[in-house]
Amino acid sequence: MQRERAPGRLRSVDTVRKVRRGAAAALAIASAALTAGCTTGTPASGPATAHPVAATSSQAASGTVPPVFAVSFGPAQVGRGGDRIGLLSSRTGALLRWLTSSSDRTTDQALSVRGGWVYFVRDSIAPEPGPGPRRPSPHGPASPGPAIWRVRVTGGQAQLVQAGASDYAVSPDGRVVAYVTSTDRTVEIVARNLATGRRNTIVLATRPDPRTNNWPPEVSGLTWAGDDAHLAVQFQLTAAIGSVLTFGAFTAASISDGRTGPPPCPAATHDQCAESGPGYLAGGALSYVIQRLSGSGTVRASLVAWRPGYPATTLLSFPGGPPPQSYAITAQGQAIWASASARPKGPWTVWRWSGGAPVKITTLPALGASPYYGIEAIAW
User: Fold this and answer.
1) How distant, in Å, are the alpha carbons of 173, 176, 203 from that of 195?
2) Which of 217, 231, 226, 227 is nearest to 178 (CA)?
3) H-state helical runs in 134-254
4) Are 283 and 233 in contact (CB under 8 A)?
């Protein structure tokens, strides 16, 4: 079985180490896509509000904590079905209900919780390669590609939202949507205004050569600013090159129009950094997670917020031990994440933060104690 890396899932310590080993080669590969016209820290146009990001730390984590969150649980045994989505209590971490069924043909990964719906991407499970002809499935043909679905938090029948898309984002007011599509030639973001019908396509990558072995690049964590005019996304061209990019949703045409925040690792430190998990806060600042691998091999993870024209501000330093693997944040700055066990096959931990010290809300079973193990994606 082949499984795509979970949308919105953060890069692991091992991947950050790959960043360190392969950065020079990957920079050469990525330079045309990421650095040509991609200016650090200065967006083509910013969100409407323009208050100092320092105020974000006092504004973050305000309001009522959402009562539930969605989780994509991975199967404990490879080949025994795909990821399955469950709804959990934000207070206790208890499983309230399953939202999708277990399937040996498809895998479901949570993207977001909006307006009483859980949005998720459903993809077919590719059969293991092997000798001899492949037998047709008794259940009919598999899905030809990824598609976006949604299901009510109360449960019920899932509804198809967008075929052929691998990520999907609804703006806070529900007026605009964006989704990611990919073919064997291009990867694009499509932004659409549901009220006016206005539509724009942003080309993130074009395949330079049919023999390219890192195609398609990973695009995840699509998120809208509150002004319905800007969006952010995590773009990872290779295992060693990735960044959080922001765009004018209806003005950008290609990745060269994307902008990044301040460099997460100053060159003088010789550290290696990975950015992931973008999420706009209600005040207009962009938050994202930085994992830093120091020269001594120590990994630290922190949540930062940034607004054009101001330095990034650290909102939260994640607890020691394994860094977050799957992560989500609300517009009010309340974060939730899952951390893998420090030992192989051990229990995972789910944390919540709404200001002050992070709260450990549940510990998931170790491998072998349940049909499911670990978390592939988390959504709030």
Assistant:
1) 12, 8, 23
2) 231
3) none
4) no
Q: What is the pLDDT of residue 329?
A: 96
> What phi and psi values does residue 157 have, to the nearest 5 degrees?
-75, 135
Total residue length of the chain:
380
Distant-in-sequence, close-in-space partners of 203: CB < 8 Å, separation ≥ 6: 186, 187, 188, 253, 254, 255
Q: Tell me the pLDDT band of 240, cut-offs 50, 70 and 90.
A: low
Cα separation values, 96 from 92, 93, 100, 204, 335, Å: 10, 9, 13, 38, 20
Which residues is 86 bridged to in the sheet? 71, 98
The rounded distance, in Å, linking the Cα atoms of 307 and 104 is 44
Q: Is the pTM of this model over 0.90?
A: no
366: its two tokens? 């170790």
Model confidence band, residue 292 (pLDDT cutoffs 50, 70, 90): confident
> Could you report the per-residue pLDDT of 303-334, keeping only the tens digit for each?
999 998 899 999 999 997 778 999 999 999 99
Query: How does the average pLDDT of the chain come out, rounded?
Result: 81
Sheet arrangement for strand 147-152: 106-114, 117-124, 147-152, 159-163
